[in-house]
Amino acid sequence: MKRKANQFFLLLSILTTVFLSGCWDVKQTERMVYIHSIGLDYKDGKYIAYLQIINLGLLAKSEAGGSNNQVTAELGHASGNTVEEAIFNIYQTTQRRLFWGHIAYIVFTENVLKQGGLQAITDILDRYVETYYQIWIYLTEDSIPNILHAMPNIGMSTDLSRLSDPEPSFKQFSYIRPIDLRRLIILNNRPPNEIVLPIISGNHQSWEADSKHMDAAILNGLGIITNDNLKGYLSNSKAKGYRWMNKDFQRSEITIKGKEGMGLLLRNLHVKVTPVIKHNEVKFDVKIKAKVHINKVRRTNSLEEISSEAKRKIKKEIMDTYLEGLKLDSDIYRLSNVLYIKNYSTWKRIQHDGKIPLNNHSINNIDINLKIIDAGKQRNKPTLIKRKYPSHP
Question: In what residue span(s) does the Spore germination protein N-terminal domain sit (predicted)?
Answer without folding.
Answer: 25-201
